[in-house]
Design brief:
74% of the residues lie in helices and 0% in strands. It has 284 residues and is mainly α. The two termini are 35 Å apart. The protein has 2 domains: 31 residues; 218 residues, MetI-like fold (Orthogonal Bundle).
Length: 284
């Protein structure tokens, strides 16, 4: 076996040898921040620095830069127009997600536990899930007009299919032994659905909810772009067209923060209420 050392190694004929092992001096952040977190922080700072340098060197003065975006945040977050737009978009997303959760869970459970319903709806669900939501917007605007109803319909269309597909997969993956034991105790189908199928499908449902939340936010912003409905999407579009790129980018940061926050909330809920699911995630 080859040995690699950083210090000098003397001949064996002299009767002694000195080998200095390679060690790294502990840094100040080792006890506070993990190595992965340090790598992410350094990478993020590098991207921001590169963005700042490229914009200052080659772009016009009105193009957003990290420093100017940070300076615009205190002004934007107290702007009544921004606060109203944020409230409209988040409220629409909450309403659309609520509708998608109720309808998607019912349809997904029915598809997962009924072969007939699954064969009847599977191809339509997969087909609509693959359709880009921007293609549906012209039809939605014709049906609902240029109103908040069009935005809500777009959000539901964007979010519901992820919940249906994942819930159906979860309902199909219930161990057969659990159902056989329930039948042996003369448990009714509704009781088995509530006590066995739904808890077993919950991890799949949460995975679908993660996807649905992101798609719902995208659907809301796209609808606001297309129909000029008041919201964060229209706020970003308007400010970018009047060359207020810093204010527009604050809206983009808000959307990113909302997505990350929802992901963290779902992850915390999974660890808190489903401790038996993916125990290795606790170590991360």
């Amino acid at each position: 076996m080859n040995t690699v050392s950083s210090g000098p190694t003397f001949p064996a004929s002299l009767g002694w040898s000195v080998t200095t092992p390679l060690t790294r001096a502990p840094g100040r952040l080792d006890g506070l921040v993990s190595t992965d977190a340090q790598a992410r922080i350094v990478c993020g700072l590098g991207i921001l620095l590169l963005w700042e340098l490229v914009v200052r060197a080659f772009a016009p003065a009105y193009v957003a830069k990290p420093t100017t975006v940070v300076m615009a945040i205190p002004k934007v977050i107290v702007d009544p127009a921004f606060l109203g737009a944020t409230g409209n978009t988040l409220l629409a997303c909450a309403q659309g997600l609520a509708i998608s959760i109720v309808l998607g869970t019912v349809i997904g459970l029915a598809m997962g536990r009924s072969i007939l319903i699954d064969r009847s709806l599977r191809h339509y669900i997969n087909g609509f899930n693959a359709v880009p939501m921007i293609i549906v917007l012209p039809l939605v605007s014709l049906w609902f007009g240029y109103t908040s109803g069009a935005r809500l319909a777009t959000i539901v269309f964007a979010a519901i299919f992820s919940i249906i597909i994942n819930t159906a997969d979860g309902a199909r993956s219930v161990p057969r032994e659990y159902l056989e034991v329930a039948r042996s105790f003369r448990s009714r189908r509704l009781r088995m659905l509530i006590d066995i199928v739904m808890p077993s499908s919950l991890p799949y449902f949460l995975a679908g909810l993660r996807l649905a939340a992101g798609r719902a936010l995208i659907g809301a912003v796209v609808a606001e772009f297309f129909t000029a409905i008041g919201g964060v999407g229209y706020y970003i579009l308007y400010n970018s067209r009047v060359f207020k790129h810093n204010e527009a980018f604050v809206g983009v940061l808000l959307l990113a923060a909302f997505g990350v926050g929802f992901e963290v909330l779902v992850g915390w809920s999974t660890l808190r209420f489903l401790p038996w699911y993916r125990r290795d995630e606790k170590a991360d």
